[in-house]
Automatic annotation (TrEMBL):
Entry protein name: CDP-diacylglycerol--glycerol-3-phosphate 3-phosphatidyltransferase
Keyword match Transmembrane helix: yes
Record gene name: pgsA_1
Phylogenetic classification of the source organism: Bacteria, Bacillati, Bacillota, Clostridia, Eubacteriales
Organism expressing this protein natively: Anaerotruncus colihominis
Catalyses which reaction(s): a CDP-1,2-diacyl-sn-glycerol + sn-glycerol 3-phosphate = a 1,2-diacyl-sn-glycero-3-phospho-(1'-sn-glycero-3'-phosphate) + CMP + H(+)
Highest taxon, organism lineage: Bacteria
Short name of one Pfam family: CDP-OH_P_transf
Family statement: Belongs to the CDP-alcohol phosphatidyltransferase class-I family.
NCBIfam families in UniProt: pgsA
Keyword Lipid metabolism applies: yes
InterPro entries found in the cross-reference section: CDP-alcohol_PTase-I (IPR050324), CDP-OH_P_trans (IPR000462), CDP-OH_PTrfase_TM_dom (IPR043130), CDP_ALCOHOL_P_TRANSF_CS (IPR048254), Phosphatidylglycerol_P_synth (IPR004570)
Membrane-related topology note: Multi-pass membrane protein
Amino acid sequence: MNLPNKLTVMRMALIPVFLVFMLVESIPHRYLIAAVIFAAASFTDYLDGHIARRDGLVTNFGKLMDPLADKLLVFSALVCFIELEMSSALIVFIILAREFLVTSVRLIAAEQGTVIAADIWGKMKTVSQIVWVLVALIALWLEESWPLFMTVSPGASAPPAPVIFLIGLSFVIQTIVVILTVFSGFNYIWKNRSLLGDIK
């Protein structure tokens, strides 16, 4: 197994570790650790593709497992966000539906001997999802940990301004993610509509 494929496998192996920190409430600073794991796993996505293209190490395993690992990583975070009320089931469904549609078109193209590369809108969608998850995780960590860092007056219950700002920012980014998800999905299908017409 070459290095890019090892990085892909490592990214998939980090997903259950990420979920442990997201779901086990007794772990101190769990959201911060989860953010570090998510950031590291996301970086391997860039790294394995870069190495594979640079060194001519593109394999069928990588073509299949690399995008699958990416989707599993993001969806693991989004499912947790539903439970944590940082997102809604509808938004997660929209993102999931888009990925299934795009993957279906890619499979149709592959059967016809055509490889469809991700366009700029798809890349922007992916980056926005990563930023959204990281901002939301930092907001959750600060919300959970802020009494440890700040002097709180007796009876105070509202989180400090940085927490409110980051939570608000995460919902703004979430809106951008949904827009890019829908637009990039329709754009992808429209650009490759000729492939759909060739289905027998």
